Amino acid sequence: MEHIHYSEFEAAARAAGFDEVLERHRAPLTVLGTHEHPFAVQARVVAGEMWLTPGESTRHLRSGDRFTLQRDKPHAELYGEVGATFWVARRN
Prior knowledge:
The protein has one helix at residues 6-15; strands spanning 20-26, 31-35, 40-54, 59-62, 66-69, 75-91. It has 92 residues and is mainly beta. Strands 1, 2, 3, 4, 5 and 6 form a six-stranded antiparallel beta sheet that branches. The longest helix is centred in the N-terminal third of the chain and has 10 residues, at 6-15. The protein is globular.
């Protein structure tokens, strides 16, 4: 797994045109039913695990994994027994 610091993630995201970069924490066993966001997302899981379901397929994501979502893409999220922390860049 490639080890990077938040500052490196943030700099790369801003260089790629993302205007907001945040660290998010989700509590253990959090379930977010199907929803969408009015922004595009580029993210990296840095602790814990989650399951992301955009459409019909589900991805199991662990520390070091990355994901992207297009603006207004319906998806669901489920977080593992220890929750998860991830860095997320948003293009509003």
